[in-house]
Amino acid sequence: MTPMQGRPTEGAGAAGTGGASRGDTVAAVVGQWQAVHPELDTGPMEIIGRVNRCAALLQQAEDAPLRRAGLSRPEFDLLGALRRTGHELTPSELARETFSSGAAVTKRLKQLTERGLVERRGDTRDRRVAHVRLTDAGRDLVDAILPEQLAYESAVLEVLDPPSQGELSALLAELLGRLEGHMGALRA
Amino acid sequence: MTPMQGRPTEGAGAAGTGGASRGDTVAAVVGQWQAVHPELDTGPMEIIGRVNRCAALLQQAEDAPLRRAGLSRPEFDLLGALRRTGHELTPSELARETFSSGAAVTKRLKQLTERGLVERRGDTRDRRVAHVRLTDAGRDLVDAILPEQLAYESAVLEVLDPPSQGELSALLAELLGRLEGHMGALRA
DNA sequence: CGGAAATGATTTACAGGTAAAACACATGCT
DNA sequence: AGCATGTGTTTTACCTGTAAATCATTTCCG
């Protein structure tokens, strides 16, 4: 879907499906590609492009509540992992939980420790490993931000009626479940 | 959806919707949150979390064909914008088309110019503006990569049957269209 | 026991992005 | 004309992530 990122200046057709709002930017981009390469099947672009664009827009919007608390999203993801699991996690566990590299976790932990949001303690058995846990301040911060976050997300998603939200959620769950299963099997 | 990024080690319930593969990672994370904060409405997380996670997985997978050509995704997006519009674009137009900052475009243009994929020419009227176009090599590269890209995307998406792909595409189009319309109206 | 290999975490060097400032030029107003 | 203001682009300083190398420790076995 990479080649479809973009906001074409002059609309290139793209007849609306339902009839409400006219085409999104992805439809316009796909139209441009179709005009240049009519033989290509642009179907995949319409899905992958929209997923990416939605993710970008939603993240941008979502940043607002977090920034008020002085947290970046990756930082909040890390704190959230500690909060939702309810117990201490090692840096490598945090890396897996947040889908990020160990080096990135190390850096974030340094900052979050300085800010007094997490604490570290060494393992008594294996002195290589560290155990990280939320401080009271960290836990309170997460608990304060999370409801704001969810409320904001809820408001943003209200552009879709509840039944559509349900269908979308289910389709994405199926796609994600299978992607997570099959990933790594493909090597083009 | 921020707080839901993660891959819980121990599954926390999450009954499957249809019945095929058991829950995705998002369902597991949501389950963990529910256990800690049962009063929260985690509905939004299920959508936004999945959108983000799908985007991450799809991008990661998609990188393969591009990297073989020695291009990053943002670089290819820039070349693609030039190819699909069919005419020259100024740096600021490229920034809008690729949803990136002007500074980022400047850097990419420098590299792509050095590699001989794009050319610049100054405007004769307004000497502030530059016009960027693909070189023959740049155009050929895009035309060579695009079909590979689409074929690969198509293969990845085959985890969903065609009707589901259609529904997903339509729902995402509606969500994206409205988000693009309403964005900026919300300030939480 | 003792050295080789593995593992957890951190450090280093670097690539890439952004915001804000700086530049270069054009445009509008008087 | 002449100067303030605006616009297009680039530069600067900085921040964050990554891959690869490093360090410290444990585990595996002969």
UniProtKB/TrEMBL annotation, chains A, B:
It comes from the Bacteria. InterPro entries: ArsR-like_HTH, HTH_MarR-typ, WH-like_DNA-bd_sf, WH_DNA-bd_sf. Transmembrane segments: none annotated. SMART domains: HTH_MARR (SM00347). Keywords: DNA-binding, Transcription, Transcription regulation. One of its GO terms (molecular function) is DNA-binding transcription factor activity. Pfam families: MarR_2. This is MarR family transcriptional regulator. Residues 1-23 are annotated as: Disordered. Gene3D superfamilies: Winged helix-like DNA-binding domain superfamily/Winged helix DNA-binding domain. Residues 44-177 form the HTH marR-type domain.
